[in-house]
Amino acid sequence: MQQNMQTLSAVFQEVVGFGGALKDDLKPVDVPGWDSVAHISIVEAIEQRFGVRLTTEQMLEMTSIAKIKSVLREAGVEF
Amino acid sequence: MLTQDPAGASLRGLTERIRSMSAGALDAASVRVLMRAALQHGSADLARAALSAAAKDALASAPAIERLLAACSAKDRAAIERELQRARVENYLSAKSALVAAQFLADAGAADLIRGALAFTDLSNAQHADLARLRRLTPKSEKPDPKRDVRVFVSGLVTLDPIGPAIEVGLLRCGFEPSVQIGSFGMMHHQLRDPMGEAAAFKPDFLVLGYDLATLVPDLAAARRNPAQAREIIAAAGESIGDALQAWRQISNAPVLLHTVSGEALRRVGFLDATREDGAVSLAAAVNRMLADACKAVTGVHLIDLASAFAEMGARAAIDDRRRLFGRFPCSADAFATWGVLAADCIAVAKRGPKKVVVSDLDNTMWGGIVGDAGPQGVEVGSAYPGNAFLEYQRWLLDLRSQGILIALCSKNDESVALSVFEQHGGMALKLDEVAAHRISWNPKPEAISELASELNLGLDSFVFLDDSIHERAAVREVLPQVLVPDLPDDPVQRVAFLRNLRELWPLQLTSTDLKRADEYQAQRRRDELKTKSGSLSDFLMSLEQVLTITPARDSDWTRIAQMHQRTNQFNMTTRRFDEATLKKMHANGARIYTGALRDRFGDQGIIIAAIALPEGDAWRLETFLMSCRVFGRQVEQAFTGFIASQARAAGAKAIRGEYLPTERNKPYADTFARLGFAGPQPHAAGDGAEWWNLDLASAKIEHAAVRIEVAN
Lengths: 79, 713
Known about the structure:
- The complex is a heterodimer of chains A (79) and B (713).
- Chain A is mainly α.
- Chain A has helices at 2-16, 36-50, 56-61, 65-74.
- In chain A, helix 1 crosses helix 2 (36-50).
- Chain A is globular.
- Chain A starts with a helix and ends in a 5-residue tail after the last helix.
- Chain B has 713 residues and is of the alpha/beta class.
- Chain B is 45% helix and 15% strand.
- Chain B has 31 helices and 19 strands.
- In chain B, the strands form 4 sheets. Chain B has an 8-stranded mixed sheet, sandwiched between helices. A 5-stranded parallel sheet of chain B has the order 4-3-5-6-7, with helices on both faces.
- Chain B starts with 10 loop residues before the first helix and ends with a strand.
């Protein structure tokens, strides 16, 4: 679980250069560069790193760290 | 996949585990994590283990990166610079290796060296995420240089944001300092037409347009079943884009990059998509023809073949329906990487012109085997494998030659033995008289290439060197860093596909002078033979029977004159480069623009000299004076200046003023004004290093007995 959090951190570091802590209530407005264009890149990086394929509906739900974790739990990734 | 930094205590265990893995077992991300751990804990063993287990595409040049890592972890700047230089000489980096190197350099406080690493990075298969990270890691240049600044505005009908970092890294790789701005979504037609709009306000050097078939010709999908209506719709779209390009030309001279579109989105009817007029294949071809016509109608508009680039990466990888339908992206993230790098390469050729000479090795490059061992008839070249791979290579060289690029040979061999292959081997496609120059001896190749440069009278930075030997390539990269030395694939069957993608050899336009250039060099060889036979230089010049045809510039010449501004480096008064649109504007504002075409008893050299003079008060001021270096020392500049002097005199001018602005490359121009009888240099206040010279028309007399002048109308 710890490892999966680190993977998620790596995604934010690599896609938008965000190195801060990924608190559950962190939202796009809190992260510079997490706009709608970057969002799709974040989702693609998550899919690649965790080896999952998400639907477009799920992609749209992922608007905070807590919601990202919940979508990934649905897809079988432990958090 | 490994994603966690190992703790120091378990380092040895981890190193052992990775050592036991097979080569290729680790992906790029894992290698990165391990390399960072190795850096953090100073463990060269771990770094070595990780590199040996890395997938090939993760690290193309592992040993170089490994040594770089050691230098970075010691934070030894001199060693870092040395290792980068060594890496440059040995190999090209893949984008992934460049990213690892960039990360190390940034961590070692040497981020300013990242640009140097990018210069020898191959971005052709780069992934978008890697380019975006490379962009973030590369700091702004500390030494601003306006000559390197390139401003690019991206305007389109679709979401284009991801192309930004790809264009930027592509331009950084070519040594430029990019600023890219993405215009507001979907406003292309507006931005091209509005003199006060976003695109105009950005003052771009280049405009990159982006769209897909559905947005460029929106009604086509619905109307496709009616061929006549489909044709009308395509023609209307062509008119609309043509008008927009014309409007942009009124606003700015910045060149525009259009692109071909893929027909994937129009596939509907399976097998019949390839046969019917309303099938995807025909419709896409019609739209791309429309784009090609739009390009030809306006100066400075280029069409990059994005559809082919996407086809090469595979439609499934290039088109991403989630991105397309949800975010209006025309393509996948990685396709944006391909597109941006292609656009950057096109901009680099537009700024610098394509390379002019390809120097090829012979044994195992031009043909298979070693002529010294196998004999002139025993080397492999012909219609069957393995000779056919070399035959295709020769045909590729001949295609380049027909586009005005010169072919030269450089081989370590006995000259007579090597050349006998051209005479005795029936399978050779390349003939010796199609070769502009050769150096076949046992001398070091960097030396031989320098000699070829002086024989052909061309700068080393216009040379490409192809050799199967990594040692010869390294030697040339070490001694002649200006020469482009690609990593020719070891397997001859892979070489032509690789070379076809060498965009430094892709011209953006071809003039009739380009098409004749290679033949002209043959005539030059015959001139040189005559020169050695003639008693004196003046006898030789007289015997050439030279005629210079001078033409006040007409519409059809702009392309050639603009191209001369691009290509002429040595005999060029200022090396200021004017494009077609600027030339037309200067002409409309009263500038006198002259060109001269030279012919002699050996052939026609086409337009080889040009000048722009601006009447200012009672003098004419030269804005441009340039000449092809092929006609150095033939009294051409004397004849041409004499003609301009007579024109100026007739217009009532008292003097001609000229400015020599020395740069790194135009030193051969330095004594020109003095030789032509100009007085100077005069003291000046500008402080830009320019020398001002003055030709007094009352007393000027310029001799050119060996050149007869004809004036065309």
